[in-house]
Amino acid sequence: MISRIFLRFRGDVGKDISSGPLSDRIRECAAGLARGKSCDVALEVGVGEGLLAKSVIDGGSVRTLVGVDVLKQQLIEAGLRIRGDNPSKDGGIFSGRLKVVVARGETLPFKEGAFNLAITVNTLHNQPSWDEASVILGAVCNVVRFGGSVIFDIRNRRDPLIYTAYRFSTIIDPSTRRLPVNAYSISRVKGRLTELGFDVVKKVPIRYRFWPIPSGFLIEAVRIKK
């Protein structure tokens, strides 16, 4: 039973590596929030195969999306997904309205306040601990300008299904030793955002089917301090 729960919540079942019932739902909600933001250039950290990037770009409110990932092959797939463009081999690649950059989330190669909007979804839960996730969240928030927004998600530590599945993940599936899964408390996340000078304006509960407890939260926060 736990094994079946874990495979559903892990977020890597389906045609694409980043697909899965919970991951797809989070991505869908994030795309809806992003479509309500009109800006010339936005950032997505952990762009992967471009599933969210395509929705954001096709939505029309973002003129150019800068996608960051550590895996170059996934960036190539993202370029192919978005209007069938094939990125060049150079760093800082343009593919239509998508610019991709090979970089790590904790060391983003952008100036402070470079973007009106920054997004990272289905990323923080794959960090070894909250310490690493907190560093990435800080780096993403740092490149958002005053009055701009960050959109991200967490898996809910208070959901017993998520907590149990993630706690025993290495027993159920040894591959998670290479790609960990973790859930965090919303209070800890809000505290970190306050430290970074951000105010939460939206907290969207993400539920799995008919389960009453949110399995995750999609959060939008606005930078109110430099």
TrEMBL record:
<dbReference type="GO" id="GO:0008757">
    <property type="term" value="F:S-adenosylmethionine-dependent methyltransferase activity"/>
</dbReference>
<dbReference type="Pfam" id="PF08241">
    <property type="entry name" value="Methyltransf_11"/>
</dbReference>
<keyword id="KW-0808">Transferase</keyword>
<dbReference type="GO" id="GO:0032259">
    <property type="term" value="P:methylation"/>
</dbReference>
<dbReference type="InterPro" id="IPR029063">
    <property type="entry name" value="SAM-dependent_MTases_sf"/>
</dbReference>
<keyword id="KW-0489">Methyltransferase</keyword>
<protein>
    <submittedName>
        <fullName>Class I SAM-dependent methyltransferase</fullName>
    </submittedName>
</protein>
<feature type="domain" description="Methyltransferase type 11">
    <location>
        <begin position="43"/>
        <end position="152"/>
    </location>
</feature>
<dbReference type="InterPro" id="IPR013216">
    <property type="entry name" value="Methyltransf_11"/>
</dbReference>
